[in-house]
Amino acid sequence: MATEKTDSPHAASDVDAAERSTATVLDQLGGVSGLISSTIPVIVFVVVNAAFGVTAAIVAALCTAALVAVVRLLRRDGLAPAVSGFLGVAICAFIAHRVGDAKGYFLLGIWTSLVYAGVLLASILVRWPLIGVAWNYVNGAGTQWRRNRRTLIAYDIATAFWALVFAGRYLAQSSLYDSGDTGWLAVARIGMGWPLTALAVVVTVLLVRRASLTSTDRNQPTQIS
To answer: How far apart are CA 135 and CA 151, in angstroms?
Structure first.
């Protein structure tokens, strides 16, 4: 007598769903145009600040952000990404103006990183890991994933990894903020931005795909001969 697992039609669909979700997540993060819109105003701000001071840097960053927004609209990247990108730069510029120091430009990103890390950790504690919530919302999968222990643990780990990314950003950049080094703040913001985000996306995809396949295997019927 032997047992053999039958092929499940859900295995391939789970992998396909993971790949579709990966593309969706990357699109939501802005893709290449998002990278450009988030880095160019920062570079312009730091360079102009070093040469002409904080007021000129604020004006230059706002003009650059407006130009990038127009280009994204002409490229049909969507109204929301273009507007949100410009508003983000505008808020950072306003804070820098109020603080009266170029380093204030980075204050919003520093504190939002801390908030994100806290919210992600809290979601794990209440057993609603945000990465799981977001991933299954994109797939329209509802909340069934919470009933599978392996899947829930995978989302816990993925959410914890994202929390670690945001916590790392906060710790590194808040330290540079206290030292007043605007140039290195810009380097840290860019270097700890897309590279770490891309790594977190990869880790999330691997964990979710593994959890989906494991869950499928455990639920497959057996055939006795």
So the answer is: 12
The owner of tokens 């919470």 is 146
> Of 84, 75, 46, 27, which Cα lies nearest the Cα of 184?
46
Question: Is 1 in contact with 224 (CB distance < 8 Å)?
Answer: yes
Give me the phi and psi of 29, to 5 degrees please: -75, -10
Taking the C-alpha atoms of residue 130 and residue 151, their distance in angstroms, rounded to an integer, is 13
State pTM to two decimals: 0.78
Question: Using an 8 Å Cβ cutoff, are 129 and 156 in contact?
Answer: yes
53 backbone φψ class: left, alpha, beta (φ>0; ψ -120 to 50) = left
CA distances from 107 to 118, 123, 159, 199 (A): 17, 25, 24, 24
Mention every residue, 6+ apart, whose C-beta is less than 8 A from residue 175: none
**Strands annotated E in the chain:** 3-5, 222-224
Beta bridge mates, 224: 3
DSSP code of 105?
G
> Over the stretch 82-102, which tens digit does the pLDDT of each residue have?
788 889 999 999 999 999 999
Tell me the C-alpha distance between 81 and 211, whole Å. 32
Q: Which two tokens stand for residue 144?
A: 């069934």
* Contacts of 206 by beta carbon, 8 Å cutoff, 6+ apart: none
